[in-house]
Design a protein that fits this description.
Helix content: 55-70%
CATH superfamily: Fido-like domain
Bound molecules: adenosine-5'-triphosphate, magnesium ion
CATH class: Mainly Alpha
Number of domains: 1
CATH architecture: Orthogonal Bundle
CATH topology: Fic-like fold
Structural class: mainly alpha
Distance between the termini: 38 Å
Strand order of the largest sheet: 1-2
Strand content: under 5%
Order of helices and strands: HHHHEEHHHHHHH
Length: about 280
C-alpha cells in the first residue's frame, strides 16, 4: 500500500510553497551537476516567473524547464504500481530538450551507439571505460525495471528507502542506457520508491558533484568487464556500493530540512486558527 505523500498533512498554501522549493532545488542541483550555469536563484526565477535571465544560454533555460516537467512526471508515477520503459522514455524526452534530430542521439529511446567515459587508473594514466553494449540494454533495463517495480508499494523504512534509491541510481548510471541524460534520469526515477514510501526526494547537492562522480567511477572499477555486462545479478555488492549508499543518506538532509520548515509553518497556521 502506498503511504501518504510527504506533503500529505500540509495545507494547500504551504504544500504549494514546499513543492516549489523542492522542485527548484532538485532542478537546480541536477542540471548544475551536468554543467548548467544557472544558479538556484535563476532557476527559481525562471520556473516561478516564467522569465529569462539576461545573458544566460537558451539551452540552460530549456534544461531547467525540461527538468521541472520531468518532476511532474515523477509525481504522476507515484500513483503507479508498475513502471515501464515508456515511462522512462517520457522522462528522457523531458530532460533532453535539444530540438536537433540526430539518429545517433535518440530522445525517448535506448542508445544505439556504444558510449564511454574516461577515468584515471591506479597507475595515473587516463583510460577509457566502455558502458554495456547497446544490444544488451533491453535485457539489462528489463531487469532494472523489475528491481524498481519490486521496490514499489513496498512500505519501505527510511533506511530501506535510501538503499533502494542508491542501488537503483548506481545501477542505472552504470548501465548507461541512454546516449545522454543518464544522470538526470537516474536522479529522478530512483526517487519514485522513496516518494511512494512517504518521504521527500533524495537530491544530490551540486557541491557533492566531484565526490558523487568519483564514487560511481570507483564502483565501476570493481566490475570485471562492464562493456560485456549481460546480467545485473553479476554486479558486485561491495564496499564501493556501500559507500555510495552512505553518501545518498547524507544527500537527503536538505529536502528533510525543507519539509521540517514547512511542518513548523503548518503548526503556526494551526495554532493561529485555534487561538484566533
Ligand atoms: N564513470 C563515471 N564517472 C562519472 N559519472 C558517471 C560514470 N558513470 C556513470 N556516471 C553517471 O552518468 C552521469 C553523466 O551521464 P550523462 O551525460 O548521460 O548524464 P547527464 O544527465 O546528461 O549528465 P549529468 O549526470 O552530468 O548531469 C553522471 O552524472 C553520473 O551520474
Ligand atoms: Mg550529459
Amino acid at each position: 500500500m502506498t503511504r501518504k505523500p510527504f506533503y500529505g498533512d500540509l495545507d494547500t498554501s504551504i504544500r504549494t510553497l514546499l513543492l516549489a522549493q523542492i522542485r527548484n532545488l532538485w532542478t537546480h542541483t541536477s542540471t548544475a551537476i551536468e554543467g548548467n550555469s544557472l544558479t538556484l536563484g535563476d532557476t527559481a526565477f525562471i520556473l516561478e516567473e516564467g522569465l529569462t535571465v539576461a545573458g544566460k544560454p537558451l539551452r540552460d533555460h530549456q534544461e531547467v524547464i525540461g527538468h521541472a516537467k520531468a518532476i511532474e512526471i515523477i509525481y504522476a508515477l507515484m500513483a503507479k504500481d508498475q513502471i515501464q520503459d515508456k515511462d522512462l522514455f517520457a522522462l528522457h524526452r523531458a530532460v533532453l530538450t535539444d530540438a536537433v534530430v540526430d539518429i545517433f542521439k535518440p530522445a525517448g529511446a535506448w542508445k544505439n551507439e556504444p558510449n564511454f567515459t574516461t577515468y584515471i587508473s591506479e597507475d595515473g594514466r587516463q583510460r577509457y571505460r566502455e558502458f554495456p553494449a547497446p544490444r544488451s540494454i533491453p535485457i539489462l533495463m528489463g531487469q532494472w525495471l523489475r528491481m524498481l517495480n519490486a521496490a514499489l508499494q513496498g512500505d519501505l523504512t527510511d533506511s530501506e528507502a535510501v538503499q533502494v534509491y542508491a542501488d537503483l541510481h548506481l545501477i542505472l548510471v552504470t548501465i548507461h542506457p541512454f546516449f545522454d541524460g543518464n544522470g538526470r534520469v537516474a536522479r529522478l526515477i530512483a526517487n519514485v520508491p522513496v516518494l511512494q514510501a512517504g518521504f521527500p526526494p533524495i537530491v544530490v547537492p551540486t557541491e557533492a558533484r566531484q565526490g558523487y562522480k568519483r564514487m560511481i567511477s570507483d564502483y565501476q572499477a570493481t566490475i570485471p568487464d562492464l562493456s560485456e555486462l549481460k546480467d545485473l545479478n553479476t554486479l558486485p555488492d561491495n564496499a564501493e556500493r556501500q559507500h555510495f549508499r552512505e553518501m545518498c543518506q547524507s544527500y537527503w538532509e536538505p529536502t528533510q530540512t525543507l519539509l521540517r520548515q514547512a511542518q513548523t509553518m503548518q503548526q503556526h497556521l494551526v495554532a493561529g486558527r485555534v487561538s484566533g
